[in-house]
Amino acid sequence: MTTRSRRVAFRVLSGLWLVLAASVLVVLAAELWLQYERRGDRIASERFRATNVFFANGMELNVGNHSLWHVRWQEYEPGAHLDVVAGGVRFVVQMNSEGYRTHEFAVPKPGGLVRIVCIGGSTTVAGRTNDETYPALLEKKLRERFPGLPLEVLNLGVSSVTTEYWLQRLGRVLAYEPDVVIQYQGINDISWRHLPRYAQAHPQRGRAYRSLLVQRLFPFPAEELDPYLEETFKTLGTTAGICRERGIAYLGATFAAPDPEQTRGEFRRHLDYNAEYWMRRFPMHSYATWTRIVERHNRLFGDFAWRSHVTYVPLHKTLQDPALFIDVCHFTPEGIERLADTFVPAVAGLVRDTPPGRRWLRATPGGTEDAP
After folding, report:
1. What residues contact 186, with CB distance under 8 A and at least 6 apart?
2. For the packed helices 134-145 and 333-352, what is the interaxial angle rounded to 10 degrees?
3. Side-chain half-sphere of 140: how many Cα atoms within 13 Å?
4. Residues pairing with 331 in the sheet
5. How far apart are CA 311 and CA 296, in angstroms?
6. Is the separation of the CB atoms in 279 and 194 below 8 Å?
7. Burial of 29 (0-12, 13-18, 19+ CB in 10 A)
8. What is the pLDDT of residues 349-366, one digit of tens each?
9. Per CATH, is 112-363 categorized as 3.40.50.1110?
10. Peptide bond into 221 cis (omega under 30)
11. Residue 24 pLDDT
12. How far is CA 221 from CA 92, 284, 308, in A?
């Protein structure tokens, strides 16, 4: 090799090393910037926690307080009681003798009574008081629609549980002789059932996603969760099928979350940080990523409901206002009431179709199958 050739080769190699070094510096700078943004998200979330009494006391609002459990994240202690005042707001939780946050109820069911049972996780059991959970509010609103009809709504929600949990305990639920079963779930299956298994199947991607820059450059392909989400729908389909075999009406629902297009400022940064908690089994830091997963879940839920002939309420289309939420899935007290309102029309239709409901319609002056 001539002296000139060696010089050219040296210059080329030097240039390549400079480009490589510059690229490494750019990557490091980008990663550091994203880490700095993440720290800002954490600080914003802490400020939100400090100023929002419902998020700050989420363990009370969503009934996860340690003192309430017989077996944590499985069963509440029968008769457990919690009464705390925080930020000028009173949170009161009372479990009945069966270990549920609902009033006492008779077994066997009294004749002529329409019994509606709500199953799900924290979004079912949540509320400042027992009377402010969505099942309790639903009961109140249905009684206003059907004055004189013996009717009750039982809240059997248990914070953090999945659809598998309820399928395994469906015998106990049906022993309470419900006429209607309402199931509102989604987030616990995604976070505690599917993402851990996805992480186990994709360890290299999981390691790569520890980098915020990799997450930003290569967004999570939500469609890869489809086979896992289908397992949730299979579980729901089995639950609905067993209810149908027993002559019990079943009502499902899509999963609601704050509309990312409407979220702004500090609350959006709070959602980014909060989403990291729900996706911690497969490290991701972005509410946009979480939104894509939930949107995928809701789209597939509609397909499942159509092919399985499952009646459902598309809650995600109605409950989108960020003002109704305290995080990526849990509601403010106003949001909980809106949740009950959104269920009312579909549940009222199922109530009218029960034998006591039909008798009530015939006995009510002006009552028809189309009664409001």
Report:
1. 232, 254, 255, 294, 297, 301, 329
2. 50
3. 11
4. 325
5. 19
6. no
7. exposed
8. 999 999 999 999 999 876
9. yes
10. no
11. 66
12. 42, 12, 26
What pLDDT score does 57 carry?
A: 85
Is residue 81 within 8 Å of residue 95, measured between CB atoms? Answer: yes
Query: In this predicted structure, what is the pLDDT of residue 22?
Result: 64
Q: How high is the pLDDT of residue 367?
A: 59
How far apart are alpha carbons 276 and 195 in whole angstroms? 12
Q: Is pLDDT above 70 for 15?
A: no
Percentages (nearest 5) of helix, strand, coil residues in the chain: 55, 10, 30
Task: List beta partners, residue 117.
Answer: 154, 181
**What is the Cα–Cα distance from 118 to 160, expressed in whole angstroms?**
15
Query: What string of DSSP letters covers 224-246?
Result: GGHHHHHHHHHHHHHHHHHHHHT
What DSSP string describes 243-309? Answer: HHHTT-EEEEE------TTT--HHHHHHHHHHHHHHTTTS----HHHHHHHHHHHHHHHHHHHHHHT
SS3 87: coil
pLDDT computed for residue 53 by the predictor:
85
DSSP 130: G
Mean predicted confidence (pLDDT) in 321-329: 96
Q: How does the average pLDDT of the chain come out, rounded?
A: 91
Q: Given the structure tokens 């809240």, which residue do they identify?
A: 155
CB 163 within 8 A of CB 232: yes
- The single-letter code of the amino acid at 136 is A
For 184-237, the pLDDT digits (tens) are 999 999 999 999 999 999 999 999 999 998 999 999 999 999 999 999 999 999
